[in-house]
Write the structure tokens for this entry.
Amino acid sequence: MGKRYYCDYCDRSFQDNMHNRKKHLNGVQHHRAKKAWFDQFRDFAAILHDEQVKKPCRKFLQKGICDFGPNCRFSHMSEQELFNLKRHMEEQRQHKEDSEDRMISERSIEEWLSKREKKQAALGSKGDLKTKEDNEEDETERDIPPQLFSIPDLPPSLLPPPPGGWKVSTSTDWG
């Protein structure tokens, strides 16, 4: 029977030879299926720009249906849908800016871990000799990145110590 070629975009398979594959890949159905696949992943700004450039489809506005469907060269979006798309795009942009601002102001977990490892390696080589600068570094190292606090249901061993430190009871009897 021979090898078969399966096209993920078209969800079709056929005998794999150079002629059939070239004919399929250059076909209109394959191009439409490929475009439909990649259109799923377009961002709101690109969709909005394309829809604003297009004129409204008269047939779609009159009847509510167009024979060309998604391949129509005119816009099938109403004013309300365009407004919602603009609002959604603005929210997405605002969310992106907020996350970038937050990432700039906060240290990343990787940075925090690398500084912690360097500090522990330095302490291991120095011994127990601590200077005033080391104590200041200890204070800054206790600033745990806020990303770690957002992880829900951490086991007690991974929870950070309370702000005042752990309570130590001196009168413990070991029976």
The CA atoms of residues 57 and 76 lie 6 Å apart. The first strand starts at residue 4 and ends at 7.
